[in-house]
Automatic annotation (TrEMBL):
This is Fe2OG dioxygenase domain-containing protein. It holds the Pfam family DIOX_N. Residues 279-372 form the Fe2OG dioxygenase domain. Belongs to the iron/ascorbate-dependent oxidoreductase family.
Length: 372
């Protein structure tokens, strides 16, 4: 799966829930933002893909920032291993693609015109007593899991206004000056925090994106997401933290609902997977794919498989998600109000699900869009 860069500014937000010691759910929202500020030229294409979320412990001291010699596009040098410096690029202001972000033409090739056939499953049947609809939904999920591992869900109960608020919050954060965003930068070895495009002298094929990640656990004594935002960025970010706290809660509810549907599709005892993942911990990740001067020469995120048990993705009408099937990158058409579900490697290992031709689906994102 990977994202391609279109004529909109892309942004994505992921929520990844982990049950100790196994990953459970990754929720990812993807949507594009029309031009609003002249200072941010829109790209003609964008790439983004799902990856393991990273986080930062707010209590860990962050290394000092070192300013690099002036260049046409502002960047920051960060200390790296063995005393080497890693340059952090402000991709929104790059007049051309820096060499570390260039991808070989054959790897950044255009998407196939043939869309991936992904069933739209009404998960509301789990609550409304429609037995025929429930059998139909279970059959759709079983078929999708046995082929490419993707399906879409409607009737999920996630308020559209909440998703929009989460997207707006991510947009506000990524529009901050680079130095301000670096206040939340991820400390190596942790899972929360901000990461931007950075490279040392040996780097190559870097993704054209920025990310913000933070953890969630609904069993915590305090609102952990709110605490993260206020503790890392200050009290002014409390409203943003409350939006993401609620969004993470809804993603957790939805992930457990989908687990119930997977139980039915696999003939597993009702409640088995739901109970197994009930106490899972989560990571939410926001991905941002800045305007790109040469979008056909790079990717927002390279091809990858999701290591989690479940990925939830909300796209806008622009889309950008691609899945590698039979050697071709096939786009997944966005369905208004629906969320894309991807069965991850952990769930496959737990259930011994075999995907199409015995190989795991690979995904990428090719649209510079905004996603939560």
């Amino acid at each position: 799966m990977r994202p391609r860069l279109p004529p909109n500014v892309p942004l994505s937000l992921l929520a990844n829930s982990l049950s100790s010691p196994l990953p459970c759910t990754l929720a990812h929202l993807m949507v594009s933002q029309e031009r609003q500020e002249p200072a941010l030229p829109l790209p003609s294409n964008s790439s983004s893909a799902k990856r393991a979320a990273a986080s930062m412990d707010a209590s860990s001291p962050a290394p000092p920032l070192l300013l690099r010699a002036p260049t046409p596009s502002p960047s920051i040098d960060l200390p790296a291993a063995a005393g080497k410096a890693a340059a952090v690029f402000d991709l929104r202001r790059e007049p051309k693609i820096p060499a570390p972000f260039l991808w070989p033409h054959e790897e950044a090739r255009p998407t196939s015109a043939a869309e991936l056939e992904v069933p739209v499953v009404d998960v509301g049947v789990l609550r409304n007593g429609d037995r025929a609809g429930l059998r139909r939904a279970a059959a759709q999920v079983a078929s999708a899991c046995a082929t490419h591992g993707f399906f879409q869900v409607c009737g999920h109960g996630v308020d559209a206004a909440l998703g929009r608020a989460a997207l707006d919050g991510a947009s506000d954060f990524f529009r901050l000056p680079l130095a301000d965003k670096q206040r939340a930068r991820r400390v190596p070895g942790t899972v929360s925090g901000y990461t931007s495009a950075h490279a040392d002298r040996f780097a190559s094929k870097l993704p054209w994106k920025e990310t913000l990640s933070f953890g969630f656990h609904d069993g915590a004594a305090s609102p952990v997401v709110v605490d993260y935002f206020t503790g890392t960025l200050g009290q002014d970010f409390e409203p943003m933290g409350r939006v993401y706290q609620r969004y993470c809660e809804k993603m957790k509810e939805l992930s457990l609902t989908i687990m119930e549907l997977l139980e039915l599709s696999l003939g597993v005892e009702r409640g088995y997977y739901r109970e197994f993942f009930e106490d899972s911990r989560s990571i939410m990740r926001c991905n941002y794919y800045p305007p790109c001067p040469e979008p056909e020469r790079t990717l927002g995120t390279g091809p990858h498989c999701d290591p989690t048990a479940l990925t939830i993705l909300l796209q806008d009408d622009v889309g950008g998600l691609e899945v590698l099937v039979d050697g071709e990158w096939r786009p997944v058409r966005p369905v208004p109000g629906a969320m894309v579900i991807n069965i991850g490697d952990t769930f496959m290992a737990l259930t011994l699900i075999i995907s199409c031709r015995g190989s795991r689906s690979v995904v990428r994102s090719v649209v510079p869009s905004r996603a939560v």
